[in-house]
């Protein structure tokens, strides 16, 4: 009976030993290959997240590392999760990313730009052909303290147009961004600076009785004044600790992100269906029309640095605290 018990005990011990060896080998293998179990990535609800719907649908693993996706309502929701380590990769406006890095340089780094300028002045006034035509008018602007405001202020200043006093352009921020398209369509306001998809929504929902026009493309005006094609509006950021520990994996993810952006631009109908399926903020019918106007593109951080810094200098001029009071150093840019 003792021999029988001893045999069972020996078998159990052997099983535990081999299980331990198996676990240890698997763990060592993971560490040796420097691959984490998973990546947690979040996008923002709305246009900046639409170009990643392809990832949600088709890319569940990279280099044997699982990827989990989520959609956050705003940067205010996404950012705390990133800083607490609940997320590894996220989508943020460049000014928000810069401000965080300025106060917490070990928190995040900027890996790439995923979306460029997509601002339009929409109007029910078909006579608007230039900034000069806006003199004496009130323009409602989406997002006080954000990129639309400072881009618009910068190009007005470059045009020599006052923002106060006689013959000036008055900026009004009293209507929330989400309500501006409806305000234009209803005739409540005549002029508005809006990003996508709000410009597309306003144009599509206008009527013959009160037609809405894309009167001015702010990217074209910006390029004329600042000698650059456009400006970044959306960036991919990574937790700094994660990027330092797994740089090859981050590069692999960025390649998938670039592929997703290219696919979205080339397959607007299919992409729009995925946008609705993964609840990224738009119905497919609107998403399909908006995607061509959303300026999705991919540029690695180091390559995009001049455009990023030009935008940040604009923020520094009008609201330095919004980007931490200074330009970020080279360690901000992933390579």
CATH architecture of the largest domain: 3-Layer(aba) Sandwich
What is the domain tally? Answer: 2
Task: Report the strand count.
Answer: 12
Structural class comes to alpha/beta
User: Which percent bin holds the helix content?
Assistant: 40-55%
**Number of alpha- plus pi-helical segments:** 14
Gap from first CA to last CA: 67 Å
Q: Please summarize the sheet with the most strands.
A: 7 strands, mixed
Q: What are the secondary-structure elements, in order, as H or E? A: HEHHEEHEHEEEHEHEHEHEHHHHEH
Gross morphology: globular
Q: What features would you describe in this structure?
A:
By secondary structure, this protein is of the alpha/beta class. The protein folds into 2 domains: 33-116 and 232-332, 3-Layer(aba) Sandwich (D-Maltodextrin-Binding Protein, domain 2), CATH 3.40.190.10; 119-226, 3-Layer(aba) Sandwich (D-Maltodextrin-Binding Protein, domain 2), CATH 3.40.190.10. Helices cover 48% and strands 19% of the residues. It has helices spanning 2-33, 47-50, 53-58, 75-83, 94-103, 147-158, 177-186, 198-205, 218-226, 240-245, 247-266, 268-277, 284-290, 301-318, and strands at residues 38-44, 61-62, 65-72, 89-92, 108-116, 119-123, 138-141, 170-172, 191-195, 213-217, 232-239, 296-300. Strand 2 and strand 3 form a beta hairpin. The protein is globular and about 65 Å long. The model is unreliable at 1-32 (pLDDT under 50).
